[in-house]
Amino acid sequence: MVDFPNIRAMAALTRPSNATIEVERFPATSRLLHWAVAALVLATWPLGFFIQFANKDVALDFYMIHESLGFLVLWLMLLRVGNTLTAGRPHAHGAPLERAAASTVHALLYVLLILMPISGFLATNAHGFPLTWFGLVPIWSPIAKSPDIAWTLSAVHAWSAWILLALFAMHLGAVLLHHVIKRDNTLYRIL
Length: 191
Ligand code: HEM
Ligand code: HEM
Hints:
By secondary structure, the chain is mostly helical. It has one domain (about 25-190). The protein has helices at about 5-15, 30-50, 55-85, 95-125, 145-180; strands at about 130-135, 135-140. It has a two-stranded antiparallel sheet with strand order 1-2. A hairpin with a 3-residue loop joins strand 1 and strand 2 (about 135-140). Helix 2 packs antiparallel against helix 3, helix 3 packs across helix 4 and helix 4 packs antiparallel against helix 5. It is elongated, with a radius of gyration of 22 Å. The site of one protoporphyrin IX containing FE has 26 residues, from helix 2, helix 3, helix 4 and helix 5.
């Protein structure tokens, strides 16, 4: 009779049930800001896109919620830049090219996440619709109604939206590559 190795015993040897995964994680503030901004962006982006299909009765509410959530992203991102500069980050891992790709996409995400709310905010002001945050807090307009630049700002906002989506697709693709194919600890660094 062939004596097969005891698979369970082997699995237990390679990955004991009480094993803890050693992961160098991002600081708690960075993780919190990552998920707060991610959740806001994942709500703000589709809201912005669907404004154009919204019924006239609800379109103004769509605008208000979209603009208010987006405006919050701006302040969280400014906080995040300060946090990233001071709180530190775990060591980068992977091949040099992989590390360069990751930091380029991350840096561009930062730029876009600041550019998007600023262009949207200035566009609404230039179109002559100052923001009242969640219908409660009137926000000072840095620029008066100026139709000539309003459409340029809107175009910057719309183009940035698609660039942001492309970067997010790359980001998610990379996360899936690490988690599902390479099966490394990358995802746990941010959890
Ligand atoms: C992270 C923040 C933001 C994201 C991801 C975002 C995303 C989007 C997207 C995807 C669209 C649709 C673009 C298209 O139709 O091609 C849009 C439109 C719009 N967004 Fe935003 N947005 C953000 C912040 C803001 C802010 C802060 C304001 C204003 C205070 C704003 C005002 C608008 C307006 C008025 C439109 C509709 C038409 C236009 O382009 O002028 N957005 N946004
Ligand atoms: C929806 C699911 C998401 C997952 C599973 C995810 C996962 C991750 C992971 C694993 C990292 C750490 C990468 C590393 O170790 O170097 C990370 C970092 C990062 N993620 Fe995400 N992410 C998500 C959504 C988003 C969204 C929506 C954005 C922005 C639009 C975003 C922007 C970033 C940025 C800028 C970093 C770099 C970390 C920093 O320096 O702050 N992520 N994400």
